[in-house]
Design brief:
The protein contains 17 helices and 19 strands. The protein is an alpha/beta fold. It has three domains: 243 residues, 3-Layer(bba) Sandwich (FAD/NAD(P)-binding domain); 107 residues, Flavocytochrome C3, Chain A, domain 1; 108 residues, Fumarate reductase/succinate dehydrogenase flavoprotein-like, C-terminal domain (Methane Monooxygenase Hydroxylase, Chain G, domain 1, Up-down Bundle), CATH 1.20.58. Strand 1, helix 1 and strand 2 form a beta-alpha-beta unit. Helix 7 packs across helix 16 and helix 14 packs parallel to helix 16. This is L-aspartate oxidase. It catalyses: L-aspartate + O2 = iminosuccinate + H2O2. Pathway: Cofactor biosynthesis; NAD(+) biosynthesis; iminoaspartate from L-aspartate (oxidase route): step 1/1. Its EC number is 1.4.3.16.
């Protein structure tokens, strides 16, 4: 049994996906990892199929990788972050292999690299075909469990970051229904994204933006919250006449970008192609959404591309398809877009530092500037590992004050009562196609719940920043502002700055402050 008193003063890492575990493993300090579920059980990293992007091919360079990343990011990437993270890619793959990750290799021993959408070179390293995330997490979980200086609290979820005298003083969590307090001067938020706030998603159930809410309530700046990537090709068994309805809010199985990279074609029920399969994800997702809205079915046809060997190349996807009676070697796969990745998040520098002293962030919870308005496929695992390492290095060099006692104040339980309503509101207003009326209605409905409901808080901030961005760019598409503005502007928001707008929305007649959230 873990002695919680003995953990006081250690850095606390909230989240146990790739970013959180990388941070723990790559730092030298003793630390604490809060994992809401058993390690790897509810992590988006485990579900990652496509692989990890790195310029390790003979005709590839980090500069080419950076160029592709900047092009996909539609003008909102931070070039310094892009250069640093893509430059670290080859070493990251080598480090993961050193930690025990068994990457796929060709018969001659070279890495088996794949092409994905918007990449100019085959640079995606896979493990177990489409099981890359699961293999990486297997190796890292084994290392974490074998590392005595890392204390893992499974079943523990971050609820609040305590700030005193302008800096982090501790964390409040819940574990088995009980309040847990850990005094600490350093907290790393690696809790993942917001995909589970949408009705149709590939994200695990825990991807509700809880870390973003904790950071916002602690005073941190959030950046580019409006940019959500919808993966174009999530498995859509409901399109089959014989299919049962999609169960509950379970994540949709992803049909990886790599399937299209291998030559699979997007067709409708007539067999006609209707879009460029390897265009950026936002372009493909909108094309599929429009085709579905016009009454068509959308299918991914891999029959010719994989020559009867689909299960050998994509074993996980094959299992998901076969569970619904779909044989990809004989049948086109029904697909539809689903919320997949959040480009926005807690604003950080390249060390992972946020605007709150003592608070770091990495992985999907962070906004480093790598992805801009649209993430390049397979850059997320790269960012999670590399930036976890950056945070670890920064923490090892940090002089952390001794924390004082943390009050065991009441911690509100997770707000599940309104979650279905939040999902419906966010999904309708902030989906692939957005407009002012829908965003305003959703923000107005969410605003009264923001003080006490973290789900409503994250949904409201997402809708507010989307409402204030009067253009279409990357993953943010406004039907009432379909053009891209000539000037590139980053959105930054804090809870303090959002309160006047939220209060106005909650009032009977709302008149919103204009341009308050975009800087």
């Amino acid at each position: 049994m873990t002695d919680l008193a003995a953990l006081a003063g250690r850095p606390v890492i909230a989240g146990a996906g790739l970013a959180g575990l990388a941070t723990a493993l790559l730092m030298d300090r003793p630390c604490v990892v809060l994992s809401p579920a058993p390690l790897a059980a509810d992590a988006a990293s485990t579900l990652a199929q496509g692989g990890i992007a790195a310029a390790i091919g003979p005709d590839d360079t980090p500069e080419l990788h950076a160029r592709d990343t900047l092009a996909a990011g539609a003008g909102l990437c931070d070039p310094v972050a892009v250069e640093a993270i893509t430059r670290a890619g080859p070493d990251a793959v080598a480090a993961l292999a050193g930690l025990g990750v068994a990457f796929d290799r060709r018969p001659d021993g070279r890495p088996d690299l794949h092409l994905e959408a918007a990449h100019s070179r085959p640079r995606i390293a896979h493990a177990n075909g489409d099981g890359t995330g699961a293999e990486i997490m297997r190796a890292l979980v084994a290392r974490v469990r074998a590392t005595p200086r890392i204390a893992v609290l499974e079943g523990a979820a971050l609820r609040r970051v305590v700030v005193a005298d302008g800096r982090v003083a501790g964390v409040l969590a819940t574990r088995a229904g009980q309040a847990v307090t850990i005094p600490t001067a350093a907290c790393v938020i690696a809790t993942g994204g917001v995909g589970a706030l949408f009705p149709t998603t590939t994200s695990p159930a825990g991807g509700l933006g809880s870390g973003l809410a904790c950071a916002a309530r602690a005073g941190a700046t959030l950046r580019d919250m409006e940019f959500v990537q919808f993966h174009p090709t999530a498995l859509d068994p409901s399109a089959l006449d014989s299919a049962a309805p999609h169960a509950g809010h379970a994540p949709r199985a992803l049909v990886s970008e790599a399937v299209r990279g291998a030559g699979a074609l997007l067709i409708d029920e007539t067999g006609a192609r209707f879009t460029d399969e390897l265009a950026p994800r936002d372009v493909v997702a909108r094309a599929i959404q429009a085709h579905l809205a016009a009454g068509h079915r959308v299918l991914l046809d891999a029959r010719a591309a994989t020559h009867g060997q689909f299960a050998r190349h994509f074993p996980g996807i094959a299992r998901a398809c076969l569970a619904h009676g779909i044989d990809p070697d004989r049948d086109p796969i029904p697909v539809r877009p689903a919320a997949h990745y959040h480009m926005g998040g807690i604003e950080t520098d390249l060390h992972g530092r946020t605007s709150v002293p003592g608070l770091w962030a990495c992985g999907e919870a962070a906004s480093t500037g790598l992805h801009g308005a649209n993430r390049l496929a397979s850059n997320s695992l790269l960012e999670a590992f590399v930036c976890g390492g950056f945070v670890a290095c920064d923490l090892d060099g940090a002089s952390l004050p001794l924390p004082g006692p943390v009050s065991a104040q009441d911690i509100a339980p997770p707000q599940a009562a309104h979650l279905a309503d939040v999902r419906a509101l966010v999904g309708r207003a902030a989906g692939i196609l957005r407009d002012a009326d829908g965003l305003r209605r959703a923000a107005r409905a969410l605003a009264p719940h923001v003080p006490h409901d973290d789900h409503a808080l994250v949904g409201a901030l997402l809708c507010l920043t989307a409402l204030e961005r009067h253009e279409s760019r990357g993953g943010h598409y406004r039907t009432d502002y379909p053009d891209t503005a000539p000037v590139t502007v980053t959105s930054r928001i804090t809870l303090a700055r959002a309160w006047p707008t939220l209060a106005a929305l909650a009032a009977p007649v709302a008149r919103l402050p204009s341009g308050a959230l975009i800087s």
